[in-house]
Amino acid sequence: MARKETAADAANPGRLKQIALTYKMTSKVDKKIGLVLAAVGIVTFGVFLAIGFLIGHPIYLGILGLLLAFLATAIVFGRRAERAAFGQMEGQPGAAAAVLDNIGRGWSTTPAVAMNRSQDVVHRAVGKAGIVLVAEGNPNRVKSLLAAEKKKMNRIVADVPVHDVIVGTGEGQVELKKLRTTLLKFPRVLTGPQVTATNDRLRALGDLMSNMPLPKGPMPKGMKLPRGGPKGR
C-alpha cells in the first residue's frame, strides 16, 4: 500500500506540471483562454446553485454544480488546447506524422516512406481500414509521390485497400485537425491478424531494402554488373 501511495503522490505533481505547461502554451495562442474557462466554470456552478435554491436543496445542487463546473471547464480546456496545438503545427514539416503517432490503438504508422528533393513527404498508417498514405507538401508534387507509393503497395499487398490523403486547407484536402477523424471514418475491412500480417509484410520489405548492399558513390562509366549472384567462399 505504501508503495502505491508513493507512486500516486509522485505522479500527481507530474500531471499538475503537465496541465500547467499545456495552459501556458495554449495561452500564447488563445489569449482569452483564462476568461473563457472562468466563465464556463462560474456559469455552470451558478446555474445549478440557482436551481438548488429554487427547489430548496442549495447544498446538494451546489456540490453537483461544482463537480459539473469542473468537468465542463476541463472539456472546454481540452478542446481549446487541442485547437491551439493544431494551429501551431499547421504548415510545419512533419505535423501530419505527429498526428498519426497519436491516432490511437490498432494503428501503426511509419513516417516519411517517400520524399522528394522539395521535402514533400508521404507517411503510412496501417489499421483495420487498410493502408492509408498521408501526404503533406505541395499538392501538385505529392500526387506523383502518392501514385508511386500506391503502385508499390498494390504490388506488395494487393489484397489490402489503400487510401490516400493530402493534408492541407485546399479543395479535396484534409485539414490537420481533421486528419485523425478522417482516418477513423474509413470503413474497417481487416481483422486484427490481417493488420498484423500486413505490417509484417511491409516491415519485411523495409528490412530487405535497408539491408540490400548498395555501392557507395556513382558507378564508374562502362562498368557492367556481373551476371548471377555472388558466390560464397
From TrEMBL:
Residues 219-233 have a biased composition (Low complexity). Keywords: Membrane, Transmembrane, Transmembrane helix. It holds the Pfam family DUF4191. The keyword Transmembrane helix applies. Signal peptide: none annotated. The chain crosses the membrane at residues 33-53, 59-78. This is DUF4191 domain-containing protein.
